[in-house]
Task: structure prediction
Amino acid sequence: MGRIVYCQGRFVPEDQARVSIFDRGFLFGDAVYEVTAVLNGSMIDNDLHMARLERSLAALNIPMPMPRAEIERVQAELIGRNGVREGTVYLQVSRGEADRDFVYPVDLPATVIAFTQARRLTGTKGQTEGVAVDLAPDPRWARRDIKTTMLLGQVMAKVEARKRHFDDVWLVGEDGFVTEGASSTAFIVTRDGRIRTRANSQTVLAGCTRRALLRLCEEEGTSIEEEPFTPQDAQSAAEAFLTSASSFVMPVVRIGDATIGDGRPGPLTRRLQALYFDTALGTAASRHAAAP
Ligand code: PDD
Result:
């Protein structure tokens, strides 16, 4: 591996990065994070990720550890130093280090770490052929709008889904409606052609890719209904897809034991996938053109 990572104000080889055992991120999951896609060496929708980082921190009463522009410089420097053309950049801010106590001291200096993961996001098997998602009860806490590192519910659900030979899992809330994917936003296209995704609230994470896609659809006059749907609605849908920073618009071709459409990515999904991808690539290209 041998990446350069960012840890507590310094760029260091990954095997030299250290965080205290008293860090509250480690002891309590008292930390938030963002994952931003990198295409052609440029970050995609990072303004949306920075805005959500600020919202997550504010919800937990953790001050922004440094100005937004400085965080963006750290992310860009990691991408540059590690020569990442395609992949993700992970950023985590924890409340900081203190002796173990549920009630945190005020004004702790936050712990900030970041690292890149070079990997293919485009042209993958999932992108071209679609993925299969399992359905499982949503095991998480009630503030899913805060992007915290408390991800054990998602870890357990994803591992269980893999054991059952699914690629991923969509979670179902106590209200009987699909909340979201374990690390993505869930969408269906109904048989009469309506695109549906659950509205943002405390029950789901407000996806940045979702937000960007909704904006693009609005610009071209394609409407997306922000309405919840049940597992039965999903299993009888004409098409389905999920969105996230690391999967963009990913076709879903099987939900539980139901094949969606003819088992191949649907035409509307394909079109939205291309729309999002072309815009992201265009943004990445224009950033390069604007760079000194
Ligand atoms: N997860 N919902 C959940 C629970 C998520 O964890 C994510 C992203 C999303 C999609 O959000 P966005 O479009 O902003 O990536 C929705 C990231 C990718 C992760 O944890 O790796």
Q: What stands out?
A: Residues 27 and 162 are 28 Å apart (CA to CA).
